[in-house]
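Dear colleague,

Following up on Tuesday's group meeting, I ran the structure prediction for the two-component complex that the binding team flagged. I've pasted the input sequences exactly as they went in, so you can double-check that nothing got truncated or mislabelled along the way. The structure tokens for the whole assembly follow below. Feel free to forward this to whoever is handling the docking comparison.

Inputs:
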Amino acid sequence: MFPILSVTLLVPLAGAVLIMAIPREDAKSIQRVGIFFAFLTLILTTIIWILVAPNAGEMQLQEKYPWIRTFNVWFHLGVDGLSAPLLFLTALLTTLSLFYSAHTIEERVKEYYFLFLILEMSMFGVFLSLDLVMYYVFWEIELVPMFLLIGVWGGENRQYAALKFFLYTMAGSVAMLLAIIGVYFQTGTFNILEAVTAQPFAGNFVWASVAFWAFFVAFAIKVPAFPFHTWLPDAHTEAPVSGSVILAGILLKLGAYGLIRVVLPMFPAQFKYFVLNVPIIPIMAVASIAYGAMVCMAQWDLKRLIAYSSVAHMGYVTLGLCAAAASIGTLGVETNFNAAASGLSGASFQMFAHGIITGGLFFLVGVIYDRAHTRQLKAFGGLGKQMPYYYSVVLVAGFASLGLPGLAGFWSEFFVFRGAINSIPLAAFIGVLGVVFTAAYILWKIIQYVFLGELDEEKWGHLPDMTWWEKVTMWPLIIIMVFLGFYPAPLLDTFNAAMTTLLQTLP
Amino acid sequence: MFGEPTLTLGQTIGLLSPELLLLLAGLIILGLDAISPHKEEKAWLPRVTLAGLAAALVAAIMLWGYNTRVLAVLSCDPFALVIKMVALVAMGIVVLVSDVYIRAHSRYQGEFYALLLFSTLAICLLGGATNLIMVYLAFEFLSITSYILTGYLREDKRSTEAAIKYFLYGAAVSSIMLYGMSWFYGLTGTTDLASIASALTETWRPVILPSLVFVAAGFAFKIGAVPFHQWAPDAYEGAPTPVTAFLSVCPKIAGFAVILRVLMTALPPSGLGILGGDWRALLMAISAITMTFGNLVAMWQTNIKRMLAYSSIAQAGYILVGVVSASERGVTAVLLYLLAYAVTNLGAFAVVIAFSNQIGSDEIEDYAGLHKRAPGLALILIICLLSLAGIPLTAGFIGKLWLFSAAYEAGLLWLAAIGVINSVISVSYYWKIIRAIYLLPAETEERLSTSPALSVALGLAVTGVFAVGIFPGLLLDLLRTAAQVFGG
């Protein structure tokens, strides 16, 4: 069988190596090679999704080669209905980012494209790994290119932001490393699927909780869930446009993906305990939603505002997970499949939708910043007339972000709340209030301050509307937002099948 | 007791061939250097040295599989051979990085290479020493050659000062160690490690404890562990940079070889009950303090040599985690990490040397914009720093994975936790170098070049970092065989 997964993993690496061989001065060729290889992964991940879709509940296309025999570490790849769409999202946003960067990044093009492709490879690796050591390896490698992308091509405060990003994530992940070692000595395997079946530390509540938190904190930092979110606004704000797109679009999903793939199935009892008995996790989720939304209300820097909106939106993912965990059966109690699957599918859908929407919004912030060289909302006004095309694109993305029916953002919130309303009603109620806030800051702050009102002719009268390449970057995202809004079934079915299997395999 | 194998002279020479070849190479260099004209370039010196090292390496590889005692005080077993191989590879890189620097800074080149060869000989002897007398002699042999190398630039005050400080410190500590060893002899009537193990009983614990502390002081000095680390930053900063590279790696290889050999043989953790636990407890404390102290102080350094000095103190703390695990996995981890650390740290120093050969500075701020002036050097330095920090795909990660797994397996989760927290702390100062290289603007655009020998060293180091980091499988089988020498 054609090893499509390892090929997908290696294509960006091949592209990066090829870029190394191109002379620094030949920026055009470097850009073309980078975009070509990213586009190749887009085709490959589309094929993977098509291959996986019919049996999305199963782990498919698995490849397994020994890596370190003495420690039972395997190079083990696999993909199911949860990872396939996320792989596609990764490839799509990387391709668009590189395309967009070809027109915006002028300094050190060679290193930029090199790092970007390495970044793509590491993100693929995280979504594809079925071995915990491998998973950790890719999880950590991803830090290095992102760190340099922020540090070299970022805004004024980039060095601080880059270091903060690195240290925060690494601090979380070393705890995870110890937990992974612990899982190995408990179960004798690094295989994620086998470890889930073996249920490490089962029967020892204290140690299971310690391991649970070690994993959970590592992922919660990445998600990020309140109070571990403080690296995010800095990193997102200082990163170059495409860096923010990847950060918000994919990197945050790595954390949520880990929670669904590793933490929930491996420690279901602990997850449930810390949702229902000691409700720390729902509090974190609700706090992310409420805090993120409120900071957005008070934020006047457009990019920072979008960054904080990510904190709020990723709160829905955590909330969906809480709903699922609360509905999992324990001794004597049947699993409420309906609620659990709804919460998980909503969370996964939100991961994908948020990637598309917020990725798009960060591109749009880039568009205005490129022209005006400011992101201060108060500085703008009346741009709707000056840049009508831009206005309409922002409207669609903004409405998708606030969860308007008919656009992608609606379904994720719908399913998350459907899952949460019975199992964790209070958290669900507060979470819904967050939706109202979202509508408020999108409409009031972004739409009203930027596009409505009087145009300052002298200051902004010269601003051109979107260029062709900015339109090309945005169109795929807009189409997906609308398409999923009207017809979420292809994505939802894929996620739902995977999530149902996940719930069925729980002991 | 142990049946002493009767070896013919030929067999003995064969088993000692790595050491003898090193000795021979050293003597050849001294002899040829004495009769060759003084003003000559002497490009043959490093070549002969490398040939000697390579011959010894081949000999060590050929001896693989032997597990026998030689001349009653040495052992030719997989553990000793692995230590020799690691030391020989490391020393090969040291020779490569020394070439240009020594030619530029000193008139006395022949002795320099001879001393390097003799220190390698000392490390090889330490790797196989099974008798306290042999341990002490080889230990002193290594120390004395190291003192001379540190003070090699006679005209340079800093170099001389570093050597004096290193010497005074080393002399004091080694006498303490000798005193401790004499207590062991007094208790057991033997200096053979295995015989000590069988003679010791728990009733002597009150006497064994202080003697253990005395001996451990000597070991801690060699590996640069707290509280016997004070010599390191000054010696590192003052010594000629190739010697600093040597100091940061080679004595550590020797030190850890001796620690494992002496403690695992004379006080095996499985056989002697509480006595085996004592040294582990002592070294646990040293390990935790050493890595934390090294990392915290490294954060304040502005000179790259000093920073790497403190970083290497911290690294010794990590390696001790494997020692106190005192298991097959622990010993494997120590050997693995020693190799990983050796190639990584030498790679970093190779860049520092390449840089100082042309710029003449070791201040981190002068590294600003290095990526523009020498993209290759910049990339290699970053790879080495990431390996020191333990980022995956590098040797440092695999090493740390093994160390912390060993600790976990031995029930030392807390020590592993301190280790990983320290890894995070270490990023914050490696970052200072990365920041300078990649983020700060260069003052000039002038390109830097690298001598061929240095390029080879850099290539070797980076290959080593990735080879161990990505394909550790074969190597681990080898190291495990070595670790089984101590009965697991």
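The mean pLDDT of chain A is 90.

Cheers,
M.
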